[in-house]
Design brief:
Layout (H helix, E strand, L loop, with lengths): L2 E4 L6 E2 L1 H14 L7 H7 L4 H12 L3 H15 L7 E2 L3 H10 L3 E5 L4 H10 L8 E3 L12 H10 L4 E5 L2 H10 L3 E4 L15 E3 L5 H10 L3
Parallel strand pairs: 1-4, 1-6, 4-5, 6-7, 7-8
Antiparallel strand pairs: 2-3
Helix pairs in contact: 1-4, 3-4
Length: 218
C-alpha cells in the first residue's frame, strides 16, 4: 500500500483564524497595526519566521522589534488552536485510507510542537505515524528534504503528497513524487498554474484520486 503524506495548514485544517488572532496579539505588544485575515492566508506557507517577517513588513514593524515579535509569536504558537477547524470529511477519509492499508504522515512548515498541538486538539494526531515540522530538519519546504524524510520514516511503498499551495507543489516536484492539490486551501498561485496529478475540493474524492495515481504508477 501507499505512503501518503499531507501538508497541514490549508490542507487538513483551516487554522488561519488562530494564526491571525495570535499575529495581532503579538503586533499589539509593539503598538503595530493589525493584519487582516486575508493577509494571514497569503503569508502562511513558508514557516513561522517567514510568516512573521511578512506580517512585520505589512504592519511596518522595524528590524529593531523583529526578534521580539518572532519570539512572542513562537511562544504563543502551540496554544493557537481554539479557532482551528478540520476541513469537511477529513476524519472519515483518513479512516478509509488507514482501512485500505495506507500509511499516513504529515510534512508541514509549521514548527513541530505547534503542529502536534493542533493535531491533538482537533483529534487528528492518532492518524499519523510520522509528523515532520518546519524545525525538524535544517531546511523547510520547498526544499524536498523534509518530505523525503517523512516518506522514509513511513517505510516502503508508493508515495503520494497531498497539499494546497505553490510551496507544496514545488516540494513534490523537487522530490519527484505525485502531488494531489486541495483547492480550498491557502494557495497564492492560480491552481491552474500549479503542477499536480489532480485537483480536488472535497476530501471524499481523495481515495479515488489516490487509487488512480497508484494504478498509473504515480
Amino acid at each position: 500500500m501507499a505512503r501518503i503524506v499531507f501538508d497541514l495548514d490549508g490542507t487538513l485544517i483551516d487554522s488561519a483564524r488562530d494564526i491571525h488572532a495570535l499575529a495581532n496579539r503579538v503586533l499589539a505588544t509593539v503598538d503595530a497595526p493589525p493584519i487582516t485575515l486575508a493577509q494571514t492566508r497569503q503569508f502562511v506557507g513558508n514557516g513561522a519566521p517567514t510568516f512573521v517577517e511578512r506580517m512585520c513588513r505589512a504592519s511596518g514593524v522595524g528590524p529593531e522589534d523583529g526578534h521580539q515579535v518572532l519570539s512572542l509569536f513562537l511562544d504563543g504558537y502551540s496554544g493557537a488552536v481554539d479557532l482551528t477547524e478540520v476541513y469537511p470529511n477529513v476524519p472519515a477519509v483518513l479512516d478509509q485510507l488507514l482501512a485500505h492499508g495506507h500509511s499516513l504522515g504529515i510534512c508541514t512548515n509549521k514548527p513541530l510542537a505547534p503542529a502536534r498541538a493542533v493535531l491533538d486538539h482537533v483529534g487528528l494526531l492518532p492518524y499519523f505515524t510520522v509528523v515532520i515540522g518546519g524545525d525538524s530538519l535544517p531546511t523547510v519546504k520547498p526544499d524536498p528534504a523534509p518530505l523525503v524524510k517523512a516518506f522514509a520514516d513511513l517505510g516502503a511503498g508508493p508515495t503520494i503528497f497531498v497539499g494546497d499551495s505553490d510551496v507544496d507543489a514545488e516540494t513534490a516536484k523537487r522530490a519527484g513524487v505525485p502531488f494531489l492539490l486541495f483547492a480550498e486551501g491557502y494557495s497564492r498561485t492560480k491552481l491552474d498554474d500549479l503542477p499536480s496529478a489532480a485537483v480536488f475540493d472535497d476530501f471524499n474524492d481523495l481515495p479515488r484520486l489516490i487509487q488512480t495515481c497508484l494504478e498509473r504508477g504515480g
